[in-house]
Amino acid sequence: MIPKDHPRYASLVKREKIAESAWDGVVAMEGVGSHGRGEAFDYLIGEKTIESALLAEKTAAALFLDASFPVISVNGNTAVLAAAEIAELQKATGAVVEVNLFHRTEERIVKITKILEDAGVSVLSGRAEKLLDLSHDRALCLREGIYKSDVILVPLEDGDRCEALVNMGKKVITIDLNPLSRTAQTATLTITDELTRALPNITAACRDLGDEEQKLLIENLNNKEILKGAIEAIQENLSNAMD
Amino acid sequence: MIPKDHPRYASLVKREKIAESAWDGVVAMEGVGSHGRGEAFDYLIGEKTIESALLAEKTAAALFLDASFPVISVNGNTAVLAAAEIAELQKATGAVVEVNLFHRTEERIVKITKILEDAGVSVLSGRAEKLLDLSHDRALCLREGIYKSDVILVPLEDGDRCEALVNMGKKVITIDLNPLSRTAQTATLTITDELTRALPNITAACRDLGDEEQKLLIENLNNKEILKGAIEAIQENLSNAMD
Hints:
Chain A is α/β, with parallel strands linked by helices. The first copy, chain A, contains ten helices and seven strands.
């Protein structure tokens, strides 16, 4: 049991959830390691929403509101950590939610769909087809979901998959704590923030943004600057740690 | 299968080994996440032995050569990643090797001992007693091993455990890729390097160090400066990434 007054309680609870979900076959073993990498970067940005991430979250909301066919792609880690937050974001955006896994098995799709539905998410079902320009099962997605999207949120995504979606002309929003990762560098818009902090901020912005602000955020979208903000935040924290 | 020409082949092979060993019950599920955190920091230091780490590795060798009763504490991750390297270091130092686990079960002790013995390590056996100033099973160690050590290498160690050993007056050497971790900050000497790069460097220095150099390394040991070197290396890599 993690004591509730532990200074890093929230982070440790998430770590435990991910570990338990690996035993349950919901999270892939590789997902446990990915979560660890994310934790390290979250630690470095100070385990809080930095300024450039908040701008990215508002811009994500603007892209969602501007979309013709918005989609949210959900994997095991995302479902375990943030099913309720995905439900809220779906309500605010009307986006289609598709379960899409890097380490894909039917069993995991079923388990993750159940977690999402129990949290109030409406999950798209259908027969997956090889529609992405990738080898093997990584090409699989739904014709009426990811394939059809113009704006797509892929939290915690693989670099190849992210690039394939960008190459299809989609506006790809990712949530990735490593600002140097290939996913972060390739996406249209990168949110360097922890998932359960990022999603509610996008949802809130979807509800609050005015038309003019929405337009300006999209016009001024500069992912390179947003990533630079994240890297600078890490550098500042490292400098402070040396004092 | 990971293609051998993948630029990050060595790192991906280690990731796979750790994941497989979790299914085998050798590595704790928590160890999979820890490995992920380590990977993130290794990425940030450039996946190579930085200058301050090489100095720390030579200083570790000097401490080993100067010790009356050197001990190497080995956990699941260390055994899976570096059993052969532990065997070599044991040969070069004459250190006692004790299996000591944060998530301790008899079953894991037996499995890890076998991995080490198969690689040629002589592993201390005996009845563990609560000899460290920590709660529960984390206090357990062997009277003729860790308890008796004056110099102890604890790769990939927990912060509380590291602090307890320091408080017992031992010279504690750790290998920890996060220069900001409590373990890194608490140890007598911190090597910010990946395990399978660090251990052979210590072994080589044990064989090469002259008496005068050994003495100077110990006299000039300044862990704060060593950690500063690691943090500066990360900052430099981040600056280069922004160009």
